[in-house]
Amino acid sequence: MAWVQTLGWIVAVSLGIVAYRWASYPGSWAAMFGAEYAKPRSALRRLRAELTGARRASAHRLEAATEQLRRARAAYQAEVAGAERRLRSLRDPAPGSRVTWLGRIAVHEEVLRLFDEDGPLDETGRHRTPASGPSTDLPLATLTVDRVPSDDPAGTCVTLAAGSSVPYEVCYAHREYPEPNVRQFVLDVRSAVARARDAQAERERHIAAAEAELAAARAATEDVDAARTHVEWVQAAERVDPDVGRATDALDEQRDRWQAITGHRPWR
């Protein structure tokens, strides 16, 4: 029945209040609730609040110092990460925009992208659309590009040599890629290679500076070290915080007085 449940709640709440009062102001019923003990109860309540406030202030100071250390570490890590990104972009530049293309070969600012398969024929059935799918990127600045005769007189081949690696050969059928187009494409690729080499030389001049910037960023731990030292100092200071000590002593004295007048010592 509802009234039984309500009565049960009332009893539970009442017992909870009595238990709390007993823990806070142990002794007789009068000690817990009587007017004659109002002043010592008020003193205990006030001193508990003062101790709680002192502890919170101490914890706040430690939290502030810890937050300062966290921010110093985050700033340090961001600075190092930024220097690492700048150096990485110089050592391993992005492919860049596409400059030109012909069949399986697409030339970007920094790489030549060689696709595994040619693009499909357009609607006329005579010309290929740009290739896509699996491909191999060759650093443009390292390439040597030549046009060589094809085994098929109706076609022309282009060789791509990157350093000491085995050259790649891409052949173009004249019916889809006229010979003049292939010749012009080879010239365009050679021009792109020259520009890529100039860009690489410019990057090489900047790499040493970027390496020094990264080393300096990694070594610049002064703010983190200072923040860590401050946290350690605050931790040591808060262990012997005089405000917490005074509030603890005052509360203990009041607990002693309560025990003297009631025969029971408050647990807090």
Quick structural gist:
The protein is α+β, with helices and mostly antiparallel strands and about 270 residues long.
Residue share in helix: 55-70%
- How much of the sequence is in beta strands? 5-15%
Q: Give helix and strand order, one letter per element, not per position.
A: HHHEEEEEEEHHH
The major β-sheet equals:
4 strands, antiparallel
Give the neighbour order of strands across the main sheet.
1-2-3-4
Contiguous low-pLDDT stretches (5 residues minimum) are: none
> Structural class given helices, strands, pairing?
alpha+beta
Question: What is the count of β-strands?
Answer: 7
Summed over residues and divided by their number, the pLDDT gives a mean of 82
Summarize the SSE layout with pairings.
Layout: H1 2-24, H2 29-33, H3 38-91, E1 98-102, E2 105-108, E3 111-115, E4 135-139, E5 143-149, E6 155-162, E7 168-173, H4 179-219, H5 222-239, H6 242-262
Antiparallel strand pairs: 1-2, 2-3, 3-4, 5-6, 6-7
Helix pairs in contact: 3-4, 3-5, 3-6
Task: Summarize this structure as a short list of keywords or feature phrases.
3-stranded antiparallel sheet, 268 residues, 4-stranded antiparallel sheet, 7 strands, alpha+beta
Molecular structure report:
The chain is of the alpha+beta class and 268 residues long. It is built from six helices and seven strands, in the order αααβββββββααα. It has helices at residues 2-24, 29-33, 38-91, 179-219, 222-239, 242-262; strands spanning 98-102, 105-108, 111-115, 135-139, 143-149, 155-162, 168-173. Strand 6 and strand 7 form a beta hairpin. The mean pLDDT is 82.
